[in-house]
Specification:
The complex is a heterodimer of chains A (about 200) and B (about 325).
Chain A lengths: L8 H26 L3 E3 L3 E5 L1 H8 L8 E9 L2 E10 L3 H7 L8 H27 L4 E2 L3 E2 L6 H6 L8 E10 L4 E10 L3 H12 L1
Antiparallel strand pairs in A: 1-7, 2-7, 3-4, 3-5, 3-6, 4-8, 7-8
Chain B lengths: L3 H19 L3 E6 L4 E4 L1 H7 L3 H4 L4 H4 L5 H14 L3 E3 L25 E9 L5 E10 L1 H22 L9 H18 L3 E8 L2 H8 L1 H18 L5 E4 L4 E7 L3 H17 L1 E4 L2 E4 L2 E7 L7 H17 L5 E3 L6
Parallel strand pairs in B: 11-12
Antiparallel strand pairs in B: 1-2, 1-5, 3-4, 4-5, 6-8, 6-11, 7-8, 9-10
Helix pairs in contact in B: 8-9, 9-10
The chains are: A alpha+beta (about 200), B alpha+beta (about 325).
Chain lengths: ~200, ~325
Amino acid sequence: MTNSIALSEDKRDCLQEISNVAMGQAGDHLARLLDSFVVLSIPHVAILTPTEIAMAVQTVDEHNVSGVCQGFIGGGIAGEAMLLFNDTSFIDLAKLMNFEEELNESAERELLIDATNILVGALLRGIAEQLDIEFSFGPPAILGQHQELDKLLASDNVRWEHALVIEVNYKIEGYDVQCDLLMVITESSLTRLYGKLDYLLD
Amino acid sequence: MLGSSENDMMNDFRWIMDVVQNVDVGLVLLDRNYDIQLWNSFMQNHSALSAEDVIGKNLFDNFTEIDQKWFLRKVESIYLLKNSAFTTWEQRPYLFRFDNYRPITGKAEFMYQNSTFIPIQNLNGEISSICLIIYDVTEQAVNNIELGEANNKLEVISQTDGLTGLLNRKTWEDHLNNEFERQQRYNEDCTLVIFDIDHFKKVNDNYGHPAGDEVIRKTADVTRQCIRKTDIAGRYGGEEYVILLPHTHVDSAKILAERIRKKIESLIVCYEDFSINYTVSLGLSGFDKSLASPTAWIDSADQALYQSKEGGRNQFHIFDHSAK
């Protein structure tokens, strides 16, 4: 790992703090939208390799786990948010999202996409605000439908060596809905991101 | 006369409106009551409704293809969270029912759309309206759908034998291995049948290989007619066939074996000027705990087939596991 992308203690604390604040706001918004209490873990911040990320998301291929990823970019900072729903019941997710139609396969996909959009959007908005940037979001894509994520990350054509990962765990109280959110920021964005953090730290 | 800054503003406004009007994606602005505030050229041209036709009118009254309940749920989260929302053709093929942009050579009958919903803030920082961006993704959707269909076809092709349409040897053996595995746990009745065409070499020598192929095909047709949906038939070799009969005791399998034998015996295959009459010999082996492997199971059925050949052909034999 070159020095320019190494994550110093200060910067990691700063990012963790930013994520904490953003999650507080996100939790508040989500609680109002979903009318239920959202339990959020302490965010975990680290620089990881593709293989390490692949290991973190490997559970997607097992049963009962669905994954969705969504690209974001803004202010020279780009990445993907990956949301992994573990132990999540679609029936509960539908209840939570006020989804009253029949739960067929396409309805389940739509639920995943909508839930991702809400959970990712709520968090990234808070982070962007503190960094004084604005993110554009691509449409969420369901993993495993057209691609298996661990294969994508493990393959030889991965063009990067490291990425910054912020990991957060969501749990919705009273529902069988639990998910991991990985916010993966590309190596090439790190100089800009660190510049923003230096500004906040000074 | 306008002041120069006002002039600049008017100019800015004009080119912004030009861009909004002419960009080749659909742009629609909706106020809090879901009344349409902006309807750009893309929307006008594809809907055949001018801006005057729809501006100030309610979205749901004019576009009944939009599921109102779904749409409201989507948009209300935008007002609260101030973030964008999306829908892709894979969830819903379209938001507005438009014809394909390529009405002559296009394969889809309608335009597949991805849509993005973005919140628009007023000067007070409150969200006052929602902008819909409609992307035409017909090309991508059609390609994706066709790719999926092609993959399904390839999967079928890779599993079947080209001449007979029965499973090929590899795929049938996969089924056999699975069934053998299952038997280790459940030990239910299950019978394996193997049979081949008697004196097939003579058919080829006397009538030619194309006639031989026709005999192989017809034998497969008879097999298909005789088996049940749950039975698994495959072409094992040149003129050799195999059938796996799950949940079937060898005594019941006898009925099937006899039916195939009789049908083939009375069958006349016509090829060009030839009328070909032929017979088959069969060997049966019910699953038995003494069988060490799927191969051993096939071998046992094969031994029964050998007995049929020895016994004069056009008959079946059952392998006796207790006699080992």
